[in-house]
């Protein structure tokens, strides 16, 4: 999937000015997620857990080549077929071979951000394979023809009334149906898809190298059916999703759930080792695990940005981000949005394709504080900003303005006079000034303090 992040400013403005209900829905949902996270983290020694998780994932990444070889061996011993995919085109080729060889016509999918990154649905549908999303949020946005707006809650930008109208048109439910009725209607519609599917596709929250165990977390049970009812199960797993030992898994399952939704653990956790054995009546006949690079090796080699690969896709940084709350994920233009998307994009897609996403942040640092694996997200945002400026992303006006500010800062007397002048700029004029005008377009105008910091500092030490 190619990012369209250069359009970020345009799409963000469109939502802010033309769809205020999106901001309301996203803010309400993310605040709820974050409140639950706070409560769940208060039940444990969160900092100790976070430090442990950081150490485990960092160790894994520093020894990734060895653990990948071990994981492949264990998966094959378990009866799974292992494929290696360097790019999205390789994933498409692998899926195409399986579809052709097995006569696959119907696919059901569990929620997988990696499949969004790789453009899996579009590829399969271009080959006349019918794909049904089975996560309720993903099902909603598939009916709407939209991409996900959030890593955990794909449809959080939509209100209950939006879904009532959609299901009334698509499934015949009443316009005043309650959420339970809407969920029941989706369940009835998807049951036929589960029974008819030849293949189930999922992601993978974790893959244990020691045992070849694929772990999947969910709350609805759809993934469990997607991995057991069809005769073929294909798991798309980013190479960074490994864990060294089975004993690591319990902690990561709990920490990820607490960070994502505030639950001690997801309602359903599936541990998959391979296809069904001869004496088993349930499960797929074939299990294929596609280990996906798609830029991760290059990112791992980056001496600063590699830490982003610790991400467990919990969405906690999105939920706390004041910028993400204004628009949701669609303006970011690719699979991963919010703070983590803004640091993954330059590493996986390149600086030019991801400009200006690292600048879509207030640098408040809240994202780093809530990350369960302690990724220094705000520091990585600064790293990518610096590299983009060196790469020429700053325009002539910005360069001139920064040179002027540097010159002004080197002259204390002139700096003080400029500060006093800004303190008396009328609101109407401030809205027309560069930077201040853009700020005031969607916010209350800035009101300078009656006294400058320098004046307050002098008063405090005299």
Can you give keywords for this protein?
6-stranded parallel beta sheet; globular; 4-stranded mixed beta sheet; single chain; alpha/beta; 462 residues; 10 strands
Q: Strands across the major sheet, in which order?
A: 1-10-7-4-2-3
Profile the largest sheet.
Answer: 6 strands, parallel
Mean of residue pLDDT values? 92
Helix content: 40-55%
Termini, distance in Å?
A: 60 Å
- Give the low-confidence spans: none
Q: Could you tell me the radius of gyration in angstroms?
A: 24 Å
Strand content is 5-15%
User: What's the overall geometry?
Assistant: globular
Give the number of DSSP strands. Answer: 10
> Number of helical runs?
24
Category from helices, strands and their pairing: alpha/beta
Kindly describe this structure.
- With 462 residues, the chain is α/β, with parallel strands linked by helices.
- Helix content is 53%, strand content 10%.
- The protein has helices at residues 8-18, 20-42, 46-62, 64-77, 88-102, 113-118, 120-126, 136-144, 160-171, 179-196, 222-226, 246-261, 296-300, 316-320, 324-327, 338-349, 351-354, 366-370, 377-390, 396-409, 412-422, 427-430, 436-441, 453-461; strands spanning 81-85, 106-109, 130-133, 199-202, 206-208, 213-218, 232-238, 242-243, 268-272, 286-292.
- The strands form two sheets. It has a six-stranded parallel sheet, with helices on both faces.
- Helix 2 (20-42) packs across helix 12 (246-261), helix 9 crosses helix 10 (179-196) and helix 16 crosses helix 19 (377-390).
- It is globular.
